[in-house]
Design goal:
By secondary structure, the chain is α+β, with helices and mostly antiparallel strands. It is built from 1 helix and 3 strands.
Length: 51
């Protein structure tokens, strides 16, 4: 069963920033929203593998 996570995403001064609300430390900053979402997914995957 897949878990659901909440990505908080904002644009700030030309950068996209975001984090996963349920997992502390899972955050990213990228120039495009698509890149940000890919980075968040990768960081979340790594964090879940470590837990």
């Amino acid at each position: 069963m897949a878990s659901t996570y909440t990505a908080i995403v904002q644009q700030n001064q030309g950068w996209w920033i975001g984090w996963i609300e349920e997992v502390p430390g899972v955050n990213a900053q990228e120039r495009t929203k698509d890149s940000l979402m890919a980075s968040l997914k990768e960081v979340l995957k790594e964090a879940l593998e470590m837990s």
